[in-house]
Structure to design on (572 residues):
């Protein structure tokens, strides 16, 4: 699709470092995607990617506004976008006050989930008996409705931060663990053999081969998990809290303040998108090689 | 040609730098055993280039994993300067067919890892590896990732990593197999230059007869599976060898005919 490739200069215009010893026998290979032009083309490609969803969102909001106005739907049943905006403006102090506690729970629980998820994955990868003992339980744990347990956890651990972090962690850790375990397993055995001839021991093999091999998969697990963490935080607050966007949702629901509820939901959506984008940004920072390879792969399938 | 004649390079009294003695091995496959090597003996003296030629699937690569210490053969032993090293890693530097550069490391770090795994600090390893880059035609590409380089460059980076292990014996498994003919000829000439500089012992597996004769002091010809050594042919072409002159000389042609005949004697 041209939409995604706009702004990339042709390979002919790209300066390549030359060296006296190298005869360039491979004429006209695929264009290089690193180098000084990569960043600007990245921005343009991604900027243009925002246009279609923004367009659809705008259309939906307009249709919504028209419908509510034309059909005279009462505000407490379905507020119009302009009504939601008014609630947002009126209640922005309340919303902002309650955002930070939710961010704390979502982010704290998420980081806990990343740590727990990775530790579990490394343990499962390192010891066969742990894989046999633990992996089925980890998978089974996903059948447990943690949402239903949330109030119980609150009874056990109290109203402070700990039970909320645990709830978020339980909801988020799974994709990270599964992806990391799969990633560790997908190492190239030839690479392992080569590294062994170079003198690498168990720890080096893990650090130099298994970990970097798994990292792209770990990041995609982390991206899935981050979308759960906001929802997890809402459940945690729902079941017992005195502040936070989840608590506010519950308060306003009982009072039919639908405008504030929608405004609250919009803040949560923005929060979710921001966290998702942040993980994506981290991935880009940590895996520059992976993105170079992926873009090359898209340009020339099946090199070698 | 006389069998077993000593080449000009190795000294006749010294123990072989590396030797495989009567190696036999079979792999377990569905419904039995698949013999891949049968009493294979090869040896290389210090500073020699040895080429092993044979049809695909004749067990050349298996022989190399044995020499590298990755695989303990069912029968036979491997020695280095007379010491037994069968099934032990760390005596030879093995460069597999695929370049196997780590995609997440820059070219510089890929080469430097051989030094790091010898206990050199990362900084010193980078400095030392970087010093080799111009000689390997990689200057300016230190911070590139392998995916952005051509096949020839990746192969040179892999060879640099192999040399930086500091081991005397290099095992090169079809080092130029994946390259196009022109790049390959360049790389062969360049390999001879590097070899003359660093003075390593090189064992090289190839199915390219020209490459074997052009590069080697001695050529072993292997039979199809199960691999056996059919002949051990000294290559007494004068060094340094210029590629175009060497491969068109009558002596080269005579050697090539001999190798091809030996290969064919088992084919049909």
């Amino acid at each position: 699709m041209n939409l995604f490739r706009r702004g990339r200069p042709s390979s002919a215009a790209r300066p390549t470092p030359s060296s006296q010893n190298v005869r360039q026998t491979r004429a006209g290979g695929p264009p290089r995607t690193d180098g000084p032009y990569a960043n600007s083309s990245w921005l343009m490609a991604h900027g243009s990617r925002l246009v279609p969803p923004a367009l659809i969102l705008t259309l939906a909001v307009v249709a919504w506004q028209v419908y509510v106005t034309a059909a005279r739907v009462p505000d407490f049943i379905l507020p119009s976008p302009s009504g939601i905006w008014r609630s947002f403006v009126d209640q922005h102090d309340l919303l902002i006050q309650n955002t930070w506690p939710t961010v704390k729970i979502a982010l704290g629980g998420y980081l806990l989930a990343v740590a727990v998820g990775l530790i579990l994955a490394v343990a499962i990868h390192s010891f066969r008996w742990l894989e046999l003992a633990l992996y089925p339980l980890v998978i089974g744990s996903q059948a447990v409705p943690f949402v239903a347990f949330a109030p119980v956890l609150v009874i056990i651990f109290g109203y402070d931060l700990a039970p909320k972090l645990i709830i978020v962690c339980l909801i988020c850790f799974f994709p990270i663990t599964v992806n990391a375990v799969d990633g560790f397993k997908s190492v190239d055995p030839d690479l392992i053999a080569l590294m062994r001839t170079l003198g690498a021991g168990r720890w080096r093999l893990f650090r130099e081969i298994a970990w970097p091999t798994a990292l792209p998969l770990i990041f995609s697990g982390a991206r899935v998990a981050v979308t759960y963490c906001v929802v997890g935080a809402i459940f945690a607050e729902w079941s017992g809290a005195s502040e936070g966007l989840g608590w506010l949702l519950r308060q306003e629901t009982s009072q039919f303040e639908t405008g504030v509820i929608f405004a609250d939901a919009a803040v949560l959506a923005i929060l979710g998108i921001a966290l998702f984008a942040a993980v994506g940004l981290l991935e880009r920072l940590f895996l520059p090689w992976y993105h170079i390879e992926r873009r090359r792969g898209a340009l020339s399938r099946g090199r070698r | 040609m006389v069998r077993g004649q000593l080449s000009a390079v190795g000294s006749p009294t010294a123990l072989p730098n590396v030797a495989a003695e009567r190696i036999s091995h079979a792999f377990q496959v569905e419904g039995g055993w698949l013999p891949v090597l049968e009493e294979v003996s090869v040896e290389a003296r210090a500073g020699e280039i040895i080429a092993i030629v044979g049809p695909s699937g004749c067990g050349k690569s298996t022989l190399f994993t044995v020499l590298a210490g990755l695989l303990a053969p069912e029968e036979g032993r491997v020695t280095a300067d007379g010491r037994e090293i069968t099934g032990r890693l760390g005596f030879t530097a093995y460069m597999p067919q695929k370049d196997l550069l780590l995609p997440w490391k820059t070219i510089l770090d890929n080469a430097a890892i051989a030094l790091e795994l010898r206990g050199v600090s990362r900084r010193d390893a980078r400095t030392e590896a970087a010093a080799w880059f111009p000689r390997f035609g990689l200057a300016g590409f230190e911070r590139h990732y392998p995916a952005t380089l051509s096949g020839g460059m990746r192969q040179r980076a892999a060879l640099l990593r192999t040399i930086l292990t500091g081991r005397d014996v290099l095992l090169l498994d079809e080092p130029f197999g994946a390259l196009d003919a022109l790049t390959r000829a360049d790389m062969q000439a360049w390999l001879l230059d590097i070899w003359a500089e660093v003075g390593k012992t090189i064992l090289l597996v190839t199915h390219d007869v020209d490459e074997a004769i052009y590069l080697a002091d001695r050529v072993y010809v292997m039979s199809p599976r199960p691999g056996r050594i059919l002949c051990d042919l000294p290559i007494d072409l004068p060094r340094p060898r210029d590629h175009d002159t060497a491969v068109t000389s009558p002596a080269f042609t005579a050697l090539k005919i001999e190798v091809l005949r030996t290969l064919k004697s088992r084919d049909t």
Observations:
- The radius of gyration of chain A is 25 Å.
- Chain A touches chain B at residues 17-26, 29, 32-34, 188, 190-191, 193-200, 204, 208-209, 212, 215, 287-290, 292-293, 296, 304 (CB under 8 Å).
- Residues 92-299 of chain A form a domain with the MetI-like fold fold (CATH 1.10.3720.10).
